[in-house]
Amino acid sequence: MASNILTRLTRKDLFRNQGYIDGAWVDAASGKRFDVYDPATLDNITTVPEMDAEDTVKAIESASAAFKTYKQTTARQRARWLRKWSDLCLEHTADLALVLCHENGKTLAEANGEVAYAASFLEWFAGEAERTYGEVVPSSNSKQRILTFKQPLGVAACMAPWNFPIAMITRKCGAALAAGCTTVWKPAGETPLSCLALAVLAQEAGFPKGCINIVTTLDLVAQVGKALCSHKAVRKLSFTGSTRVGKLLANQCSANLTKLSLELGGNSPFIVFDDANLDKAIEAFTMAKFRNSGQTCVTANRVFVQSRVYDQFAQALVKKVKTLKVGAGTEPDVFIGPLTHERAVAKAMSHVEDAKAQGGQVILGGAPLTGYNGYFIQPTVIRDMSTKMLMTREETFAPVVGLYRFETVDEVISLANDCDVGLGSFICTESTSRMWRVAEALDVGMVGVNVGVLSACESPFGGVKESGYGREGGRHGIDEYLIVKSMLINVSD
Ligand code: SIN
Fold this sequence. Notes:
It contains 15 helices and 21 strands. By secondary structure, the protein is of the alpha/beta class. The strands form six sheets. A seven-stranded mixed beta sheet has the order 14-15-16-13-12-18-19, with helices on both faces. A five-stranded parallel beta sheet has the order 9-8-7-10-11, sandwiched between helices. Strands 5-6-21 form a three-stranded antiparallel beta sheet, with no helix packed on it. Succinic acid (SIN) binds near residues 163, 263, 296 and 298. InterPro entries: Ald_DH/histidinol_DH, Ald_DH_C, Ald_DH_CS_GLU, Ald_DH_N, Aldehyde_DH_dom, Aldehyde_DH_Superfamily. Keywords: Oxidoreductase. It comes from Bionectria ochroleuca.
């Protein structure tokens, strides 16, 4: 399979299957490797090193040594490297997208979109690098002057998920490198190849040796995570993934009080009010739910539709979903690809079965898709959902829709907030006052109004409650990697 991808890459050197430490492509000290699969075909793409704590410490030490000089570089220089890296990503979009498409299963159109999204963070933080202003603070003491300035924290560990393998890396390391931190990346075991390709381009953009290090692992992820959390040189850890793992990392980081950003699970409400433009709502919903095969942290998971338009919305949705082609990401016009894991199919099916057992009516799909080797399921729509069902509490992370009915604004706010997590949310309404009222009342970090995608490098991304803390992207993203130092000056002579 590797040769299949290789023959189609314009830049063959972007295909790497080794870790990257201290500017060199390396194997695991143990010599162990693991397989990377294409979830659409279950073909083995290649193997990469199964790195462990020993390899991780080497990566941290490389980043720590590089930090001594990297922190002295000017923000203008770091901005130039970031901008060049962004340009190189865009120039090699087709190659990066091909790798993403095969290791993750996303469609080529979405993979192209992810490359642009990933590059946008590098460009954005190139701009932010030079905007990390300090301030002059009026002192209460006439003999003193006070000012603040910002400095990089140190080594930053960037742990990325498999659903957006490169965009989640650049959202973290773009900010870190702009701030003057050096980095150790831990890509998801399922999707290391696009990150390795990204590092080739970073090297070409001019980043000094040791600024970027990559530890690849699948089975030893707990060991690698612990090494990142417990090493004193790591002063920042940014993780995107499950709430369960986020809590574990937070515990481990407590020993050194390592600063954390956590972008964890969501269970986004998608609320359709009866004054909404239903055509626009269906378009927004299609993106919110089916983008990336339903595998985004902000995917619409609980779909609340106001009673008066419930039947109409359900019918229009089924009609729309029937037009969405399912297949391997490389096939033309496919909108929904495979799920990335076998266990994701099992989870989605368990949600469907649970809903059916409790009175939910499957009006489209409802089963795995036959005729493929990979992890495909039929896009599914279930109506008459109730809050006792599994889908109310758990992220389905698949192209499965459950429609809940509601009557009043107060009722839907209370339903939407009855949840341990609070990442994204979506509202469809034509009423400005309703928009404000609901947006302010929802316990979430992000609200989309008549849109289905919340992603934009300039908009802060993050959640509340058990969706974690910290903000990525936007003007706040770089602050996560900086300390504010204050200086009091005696001017009394
Ligand atoms: C995520 O799923 O965590 C990221 C989605 C996005 O940035 O669009």
